[in-house]
Structures are given as structure tokens and as C-alpha cells.
Amino acid sequence: MKGETSWVSHCLSNIHREIEFDILSEVTDEGSKEDAAVSLDLILPDELLERILSYLPIASIFRAGSVCKRWHEIVSSRRFIWNLSQVQLQKPWYFMFTSSDEPVGFAFDPIFRKWYGIELPYIETSNWFIASSCGLVCFMDNDSRSQLYSCNPITKECKRLLEPPGLKFPDYSALAISVNRVSHNYSISVVKSKQVPGDFFQWDLSVHIYDSETMMWATPLTEVLTGWRGGDESVICDGVLYFLIYSTGGCASENRHGLITYNLCNRSSHGLLMRSFTPAPCSLTCGRLMNIKEKLIMVGGIGKQDRSDIIKGIGIWALEGKGWQEIARMPHKFFQGFGEFDDVFASSGTGDLIYIQSYGSPYLLVFYVNQKHWRWAQKCPVTKRFPLQLFTGFCFEPRLEIVP
Ligand SMILES: *[C@@H]1O[C@H](CO)[C@@H](O)[C@H](O)[C@H]1NC(C)=O
Ligand SMILES: *[C@@H]1O[C@H](CO)[C@@H](O)[C@H](O)[C@H]1NC(C)=O
Ligand SMILES: *[C@@H]1O[C@H](CO)[C@@H](O)[C@H](O)[C@H]1NC(C)=O
Ligand SMILES: *[C@@H]1O[C@H](CO)[C@@H](O)[C@H](O)[C@H]1NC(C)=O
Fold first, then answer.
1. Domain F-box spans what residues (predicted)?
2. What is the pTM of this model?
């Protein structure tokens, strides 16, 4: 099965063209597949075949498209692609950047446990801000923070969005996206944070929301925080925007991180942002927020009491009401398996999977939330070439029907 990965990688980088234009290419293929496929072909009416194919994982759907002309026509049809959205069996993939300067890397498919070479549209380097939801990935540049795209990395469809309003050159920005699974319209949020000039303890914070229906930004909230600043972690779950804030050391607080909750439906909380404050569950070094089936989950490094830059483990918590409940802790053998583990790491999750990787190595650990099961991903097909080479990544759902 050696050829598989390269076939898929070839096809994935050409999916859009495949679907739209490449109807003729597999006519030559027909003669060689006259075994099992043919008898199925004869028995099954189109609708049934369509239904069966729609239950396949994305990568198999592309392979099925090369079986014969009839199958190809089915998997290329708009109706089939639309119907796929009704069958939600796809598992989220993890894209790992293998270079800090270029947007190159591989995507891990947890169903086949394989890595595919796919190209990401538009993004220029791995330090851009990235958020994803239901097949769409949003990228924002990390210099001017004015270039913003929403893309489907599978079909390569991409759209440039208007620049978010508000403060220019914020010190911190947090990006999140939320796609409505029924209507496919989406919201993007940017939380900007900038120090008030000459005052170390005061930070301007503003929340900006983009609506794909109106294609406009709104700024429902601006506030000044004292002793706390925003950061670059945020996520939207079930209509609520969550973001982490970080102590600037003014008040002698033992919690260096906290969570702010902002309801996007009724958007009315002037002067009240800190009322929604939920302290981090322990001394965290690196909190990462994610949407797991519309529930807020946080992954974080558990700091040593005396040396907060060294972590002794990684925990996973779910927000239950106003408090955190620990749902898992990375077993020590996996933690050790990363080799040197920095106090910062990449982690991203959706659906029922959470991916964790250290910046220092191309190893990827998967946590299956429902089964509470940890498992290494297949080794990424890259090797570390120099000691300071960094790896990072994000997860997204592979979907054909979703359009930016
Ligand atoms: C696809 O969707 C259409 C419209 O909802 C439906 O009538 C049809 O049965 C679906 N086909 C399959 C194969 O699921
Ligand atoms: C943006 O760039 C800064 C400075 O290089 C870096 O510290 C930060 O982590 C970057 N943000 C993201 C999201 O990569
Ligand atoms: C998305 O579309 C649905 C129905 O079409 C609508 O009720 C909803 O308000 C829209 N949401 C956003 C965020 O635009
Ligand atoms: C916003 O709506 C939620 C329920 O959807 C409610 O719990 C909350 O109190 C509301 N907030 C404000 C400020 O009205």
C-alpha cells in the first residue's frame, strides 16, 4: 500500500480541480477494475450507491472516485457533496507545520492513521493566527494583523475578509471562528489587547465580531482591564466566546490565568467583563482552549510550585458551570515520550479528539475524549534537521461541502 499516500496527496492538492473539471481522466481506468466493483455497480441503484459512498472517510471518497466513471460522477456531484454534510462521520485531521518560515507540512488522518502532503492556501508562515470550525480554517497574519482569510483547506476555496476594526498593532490578538452547521454561515471573533500608554497595569481590550452573512465587522465591546491583559487564546462554543486573560502582576493574585466568558447572542455586558472571571484550575503555563462538541475544554501544562517555567504534567479540564473539572491527565510515559518537553506546546482539538505536540519534535499524541484513551499518531514523515527546528500545528475537520 505504499503508493496510497502519494496518490492521496496528489489528489488532495488537486481536489478542487478534480471536482470541477477533471471528469474525463479516469476513463482509461475503467478496464482494470472489472471485478467486485462491477457487480456492485449492476445491483445498486444510484441513490443507494450514493448513500454508501457518503459514509466513507474523505480520503476514501477520492479513491472511490477513481474506480470508474459512474462512481466518479457520483462523488463529484453537488448533491453528493451536499449530502455528505448530513453524514458526520469524518474525524478531525491535524496539520503539522514542519517549517517555521514556510507554510509547509503534513495532515494526519486519524481514520487511516496516515499523513498526507497538503498545501494550505494563503498562509505565509506557521506563526500566523489560526482558528478552525466545521471545515473552515481562518488565518490572520502576525505582523499587521490586517490580512485575514477564511479557507477550506480540502477544496482550497478561500476568501479574503475585511480587516478587523479597532486598535492598530495590538500587543495581543486572539482569533476564533464558529460555523453554524445547519446554515453554514459563520462568525469570526478577534479579541485585541493593548497596553494603555504609560500605564503598565491598564490594558485596552476590545472584541470584534465578523458575520459572514452581512460580511461586516461589529465591535460590541471595549473595556479597560486593570491588572490583567488579553492573550492569544480564544474559542467559541455554543454561541459563547471564551478567552484567557493573564495577570500583569499588579494585584498579588495566585492565579496567573483566568477565563472570560462573553455571550455572543446578547452581547450586552458593558463594564462587567470581569464578573465572568473563572480562575484557572492550577498554576498553568500554557492554557489552550478548544471546542469539543460545543463544550469548552482547556488543555494546560501544570507548573511546578517553585519553578513555573517547568511543567510536571499536562492536564485536560472541562468547564462545568463556574468551575473546572479535570477530565484527564497525560500519563507519564506519554509525557516522557516527547523527550524534552518545553513549558509551551501546541494543542488543538475538535469533535472528540484532542491533539498535543511539543514544539521541539514532530511527535503527535492523540487523546480520544469519549474513550479517555491516549495514543501516539503514526510518525510524521519528517525528521528534525537541526536542533532548534520547531513544529506546530492545528486541527480541522476535512469537509467538502463547506464554502468560505
Ligand atoms: C441527498 O439529499 C437529498 C435532498 O435532501 C435527498 O432527497 C436524497 O435522498 C439524499 N441522497 C442520499 C444518497 O442520501
Ligand atoms: C506572533 O509573533 C510573535 C512574535 O514573533 C510570537 O511571539 C507569537 O507567538 C506569534 N503568534 C502566533 C499565534 O504564532
Ligand atoms: C445563520 O443563519 C441562520 C439561518 O439561516 C440564522 O438564523 C442565523 O442568525 C445566522 N447566524 C449568523 C451568525 O449569521
Ligand atoms: C445572555 O443570555 C444568557 C442565556 O442565553 C443568559 O444566561 C445571560 O444572563 C444573558 N446575559 C446578559 C448580560 O443579559
1. 44-85
2. 0.85
